């Protein structure tokens, strides 16, 4: 048995077919966990499946799921339990970049869509996952891990990003509330406040944004995806059992610059 063996544990990663989510899923698979990817794009889900099944002994499931639609969340949870039997860990990672509008140009539709995916989506995923975890705790098997993908923008300002920043700040609040409420079941909840990583979302941004970020980050580089593997495994493992309610920046020092 290795120090961070997740054999027999099942982890959900929403939005886990690319970017940060897929990087974290790779670590979970390598550590032996069963991994369920819930994400919208069927083709990217299939590619993620083909990669993850080669990385470890656990089973892999992909399910098309838009976290802004509760019916799809409920169906993804049903399928995950039918195929994998249990859920021990949930990475609420699915998210969008926001409308990209200045504050005077905010629209109700753009604001609501960002909140529906980034905040309400995570809350509804937690709703369905924790019902299962709490039922298991009442049957004598307490414990569970909730890990949210938040952002450094939740604690610092960036132009034309008010809806995104607000959605992630709300996600931090959800994390603290969940940690307090669910501690009686030995369920922990934490959020990872990621800084600048090169992903499909950042690739769509103005190149000047990446240049500005690289100058501002004390370590002078974007985050490395390989490093996310171990980070995910740590927060999924029993070694993080005494950490809950925390919103941890993972940003190369960006938030202190």
Written description of the protein model:
With 257 residues, this protein is an alpha/beta fold. It has a single domain (10-256), classed as 3-Layer(aba) Sandwich (Rossmann fold). Helices cover 45% and strands 16% of the residues. The chain is built from eight helices and seven strands; from the N terminus they run βαβαβαβαβαβαααβ. It has helices at residues 19-30, 42-52, 70-84, 108-138, 162-182, 200-203, 207-216, 225-236; strands spanning 10-14, 34-39, 60-64, 89-92, 144-151, 187-194, 247-250. It has a seven-stranded parallel beta sheet with strand order 3-2-1-4-5-6-7, with helices on both faces. The protein is globular, with a radius of gyration of 17 Å.
Brief rundown of the structure:
The protein is an alpha/beta fold and about 260 residues long. About 45% of the residues lie in helices and about 15% in strands.
Key terms for this structure?
16% strand, Rossmann fold, 257 residues, alpha/beta, 8 helices, 7 strands, seven-stranded parallel sheet
């Amino acid at each position: 048995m290795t120090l961070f063996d997740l054999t027999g544990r099942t982890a959900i990663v929403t939005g886990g077919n690319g970017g940060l989510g897929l990087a974290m899923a790779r670590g979970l698979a390598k550590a032996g966990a069963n991994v369920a990817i819930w994400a919208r794009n069927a083709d990217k889900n299939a590619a993620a499946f083909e990669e993850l099944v080669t990385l470890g002994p656990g089973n892999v499931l992909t399910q098309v799921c838009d976290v802004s639609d509760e019916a799809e969340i409920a169906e993804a949870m049903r399928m995950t339990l039918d195929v994998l039997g249990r859920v021990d860990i949930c990475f609420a990672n699915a998210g969008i970049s926001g409308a990209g509008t200045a504050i005077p140009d905010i629209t109700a539709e753009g604001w609501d869509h960002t909140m529906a995916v980034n905040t309400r989506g995570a809350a509804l995923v937690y709703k369905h996952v924790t019902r299962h975890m709490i039922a298991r705790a009442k049957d004598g098997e307490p414990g569970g891990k909730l890990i949210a993908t938040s952002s450094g923008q939740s604690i610092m300002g960036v132009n034309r990003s008010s809806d995104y920043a607000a959605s992630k700040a709300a996600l931090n609040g959800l994390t603290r509330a969940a940690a307090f409420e669910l501690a009686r079941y030995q369920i922990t909840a934490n959020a990872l406040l990621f800084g600048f990583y090169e992903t499909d979302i950042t690739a769509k941004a103005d190149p000047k944004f990446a240049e500005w970020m690289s100058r501002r980050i004390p370590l002078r580089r974007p985050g490395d995806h390989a490093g996310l593997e171990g980070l995910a495994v740590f927060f999924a493992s029993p070694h993080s059992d005494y950490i809950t309610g925390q919103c941890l920046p993972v940003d190369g020092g960006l938030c202190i610059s």
